[in-house]
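Reply to thread "Modeling small-molecule complexes from scratch"

Following up on the discussion above, here's a worked example others can learn from. I took a protein sequence and the SMILES for magnesium ion and predicted the complex. Inputs first:
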Amino acid sequence: MNIFFDVDYTILGLDDSLRPGTQETLKQLKDDGNEIYIWSGMGERWEVVHKHNLTPLISGVYEKPTHHFHERLQELGVPVEPDFVIDDYPEVVAAFGGVWVPPYFFKRSFDQEMDRIYRIVCEVAATGTSEDRQYRVKGSTVPLF
Ligand SMILES: [Mg+2]
């Protein structure tokens, strides 16, 4: 699958730390045959990718659409259709399908969201869906509260 990770509060904290398990999870997903992309509503975040040594694991870095998600992919130069997105922003997850994650702010010892993401990706790859409440089917509606 083409798997797209958001940057701020998904893999990167306010303190510029990487969410625990990010490198390991990206490597596992790539080793499983997925293509990993990084995108952000703040533009192409190459500096984050280079600083945290993610460059060998990823297939591209793009600007993320923050509205009209599907329509704006071409305009933003995103060359593939995202199959699965991971984001703290629920609208983009609902648009493409994937996992909503609680925002990550600061380095802390207990954050297992990356393990959860990996489990859900494997489950969806194997069965087409997941019962996890953080999983969103493509085109699902976003709860208002
Ligand atoms: Mg974010």
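What I'd highlight from this example: Residues 6, 8-10, 87-89 surround magnesium ion (CB under 6 Å). The chain has one domain: 2-136. Questions welcome below.
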